Amino acid sequence: MLGWSEEKYMSAQNQIESKQIVLVVEDDLDTQLVFRDVVGLAGAECAVASSVAEACSAIQEQEVSLVLLDWRLGKQSGSEFLKSCRETHPLLPVIVITGAPADVQNIGADAFLAGADGFLLKPITVGVLQPLIKRWLKRYSATGKPLSPTREQEIVSLKDAKRIYVKQVVQVLGGNISLAAEKLGVNRHTVAGLVKPEE
Question: At 136, is the pLDDT very low, low, confident or very high (cuts 50, 70, 90)?
């Protein structure tokens, strides 16, 4: 055992076995390799899915702690995976990633409305992605359960859920309340009432 004591060896084994899994849902092979490296640098294990079907199978078969989801998977959309994921794993954090800057506002709004926890635009630097992965993994155990009750409270509180998502949509749309209202299919005053600071 390389001169290690049994205690040190068992400690190292436990660390390896308890590594959290980050699922990368991405159909581009080069991007998969980059994400795999960054996930490794963040101290996690990387699983890869190239399609919505593979991603849905992965979260059923493995104890995934975080999903990095490409919004456009060939002819499929990340929204298909998010819909399924939210039904089976409502607390699993999903970060949506897109390389379509021309349509970023609509994609961002759609992603948050579908239940995404975060949104990033390609190209993404290691300096941005690595700390983001670490931050989310700190909040979640290897079983996908939150380490703190914050996220769970946000999800299960119906009163707060609408406010949270509407605020995220308005933020993605550059603070444009009228555009957010149009996107959400409600009147402007409803959106304004939800995003105003609580007294």
Answer: confident
